[in-house]
Specification:
about 375 residues, binds pyridoxal-5'-phosphate, four-stranded mixed beta sheet
Amino acid sequence: MPSLHTIAAQKLQLLEAKHQRRTLRIYTPKAGAYVHMEGRDYISFSSNDYLGLSHHPEVIEAARAALEKYGTGAGASRLITGNHPLYDELETLLAQMHGTQSACVFGSGYMASIGVIPALVQHADVIVADKLIHACMLDAAKLSGATLYRYAHNNLNHCREILKAHRAEHANCLLLSESIFSMDGDRAPVPELSALAREYDAWLMVDTAHSIQHSASGAQGLGDVILGTLSKAAGSYGGYICADKAVTDYLKSAARSLIFSTALPPATLAASIASLRIMERETELCVKPLTYAKMFTGMLGLPEAQSAIVPLIVGQSESALKASQALAVRGFLVHAIRPPTVPPDTARLRITFSALHEQSHVEALAEAVREEVLCAPLL
Ligand SMILES: *Cc1c(COP(=O)(O)O)cnc(C)c1O
């Protein structure tokens, strides 16, 4: 048998040949939308901290106060002694914001997904999912043992065909989508999916990781189970589910990622609470990322942005990497997203806009993208 070293080295070589090897670089956040990487400052268009709340003085102060009062770690899982009173405050706030009876906070969005989906469906059941759902839901679907069907992205007719053909063969049915797709920035037809779910006796679960604003009125149509993260627009860390109280009560006895993992640090809970209060209060801040995204697509004559995420699909991984490097030379950090994160031949630049950007940043990026990407011979 070859040594583990040999096997790992071979696998790395294969990834390298496909331009799919990934490496970790060191990034230090700086003031505003700037980030320092390997000796140079860049304007970052690659962060999901859409509102800059990770550096908001109120959020930092809330975390600092909790840190000094309660220490660094939770010490045990939520079911043992880690269930700090701040969980209660955070969950009450989340349920209010989403207009649901209840909320349940997990270690991260990924952990919420892999805990919740296998708790809701098992072998006798079926999952019908959008082709582009996030890896955390796909992994959870596999873990659940339920039969999995995937419909073409945002294609309601295909979704209906699958339900028509296979719904009756299974006990329970879970429909999975994202509200805003993480790598494409487009929106799902959630009200129509919700109607399909009712028609075919299915539950709808929607991942809202990239939604910046939650209003109780808008969120009510988001399905039976809303999955969210505190790690993106909220600038903190953690994941959550909003649903009926019986559902969240059940999850506390059934979701293995909640039961068998240590609770979040109290300071992280405090930061999340402070961030959510700012998001509720500062509606103007919350619309800025989308305003910038629309400004950018308008400048380049691209289809109008539907969210703070704008993809520039270039096709091959190598081209995406080259385009990203060309923008880096001009001082912009825009990540190349490659398969298997996105489907084969759809490697892209994924541009995210933040409330920390200024109009001049958006204008400068548009000019660089026009020259380095849209008009470049390498693509
Ligand atoms: C980031 C992300 C998650 C995972 O959330 P974390 O809190 O980072 O684990 C889930 N779904 C989507 C669509 C995401 O983009």
